[in-house]
Design goal:
It is built from five helices and eight strands. With 225 residues, it is an alpha/beta fold. An eight-stranded mixed sheet has the order 3-2-1-4-5-8-7-6, sandwiched between helices.
Length: 225
Amino acid sequence: MLTMGSLFDGIGGFPLAAARHGITPVWASEIEPLPIEVTRTHFPDMVHLGDITKLDGGKLPPVDIICGGSPCQDVSLAGARKGLAGERSGLFFEQIRIISEMREADKRRGRTGIAVRPRIAVWENVPGSYSSGSPQGSDFKAVLEAFLHIEEPHLHVVEPPGGRWEYAGAVLGERSCVAWVTWNAKHFGVPQERRRIFLVADFGGCRSLQILFIPKSLPGYPAQE
């Protein structure tokens, strides 16, 4: 049975998706009272841990997957564009810290290779992240490197010409992989334009590519043969 922890949990979008696919949400980090009450209603067994800045990843219950949609205000095209240097969007690095601490603690417990938890991390954010930072696009490079450096600190991500990132792509290391794609909610049953980046990091292989780019099926469409 796969398990999941949810950072910046909101009203539990990631736990809902996990539960629908047989993954057990174990804990969540959120500070807003109303969203916490919503998720307590729907996921009474999920433990609420509170403020992400006060968590020690090495002391949290280990999980196979950690998900998080860090605050978007500073990278959004509609905001002041302070980027990852901003107070809110900069909380992204707390997500990286917790993942790193949990993996290091699991290694101290004797786990190795693909058994080290979390194996998978998921990050969600707005497309403004592609162009945020100075020079343009440097924040998205920082995001990619932050995930890759958890397992392979020597890796260096090369920025595209002009800092213009594609809406889908991947960076492969020797032992890990990060892939991303931009999806629009209007193609998934929501009556509005709402584009979001979904990034998947695999710290023990290249399953990110399989997760994002090899479809099984979509509502109303049969699985491919």
